[in-house]
Write the structure tokens for this entry.
Amino acid sequence: MVARVEPPLYCILLGPPGAGKGTQAITLSQDLGLIRLSTGDLFRENIAKQTDLGLRARAYMDRGELVPDDVTIGMVLERLRRPDCAAGAIFDGFPRTAAQARALENALAACEEGIACVLDLEVSHDVLIERLGGRWMCRGCGASYHVSYHPPTVAGKCDECGGELYQRPDDNPETVANRLRVYVEQTEPLQQFYRERNLLVVIDGEQSIEDVQQAMRVAMELARSRRLFQFNTRRAMPPIPQ
Ligand code: AP5
Ligand code: MG
């Protein structure tokens, strides 16, 4: 009898700026006991602490462009090596280029791991513009609010941690337009990359926050079962005779 051991679970949230990646990743990561690895938040933390990485990233973020791959990949792989990632991670905003996707795939393959699923939030252009225009973020925990769709209980304060809410500098109309353009050019091709690997699950991101959450939870549970089956089947296989 082979003991059932849970393999780490790595899931990617794909979707354009304003699709709801952060909103969903925060709740899912808490419920599933996984860390949320948001490259946008890691860059913003570095900017707040005025590190060299933060100073380098800021110029790109202010323009709505992607931070160069070498910087981003190095930061993510370093984060993944920390012990709190042992159970897996929910990637929010990473990967965003083919080079990032390949680097992640190679890093996980080196530890005989892989991505369990890629949840692609589909939201139309006009809805994205409206969401980003009305968004307020928490300086403390990174939670997202919206003036109409998801207002905080007390104006200006985060429901989760009591932190101060602010509007992101890259949520102005010009930078938003560039972020959406960059997404189409550099990140949307990853849909095909993951579709070819049979990992892509498209989720209607225009449902209510609760319904999107439910759809993602179902997809992640299926992916988790599939990973568990693959993992235990592999462990139970006798060695190939030489
Ligand atoms: P990042 O911080 O990741 O921003 P983004 O990808 O542009 O996405 P957002 O955070 O704007 O949107 P979201 O999908 O999280 O939506 P949210 O949940 O907040 O990256 C910022 C920058 O960092 C990049 O531009 C780049 O410069 C750099 N960067 C980051 N990662 C990088 C990488 N891998 N490589 C290179 N550079 C990188 O929701 C939006 C609003 O909608 C909120 O107000 C929310 O309350 C509301 N909302 C959410 N869901 C719903 C719903 N179902 N119904 C109604 N309202 C909803
Ligand atoms: Mg976000």
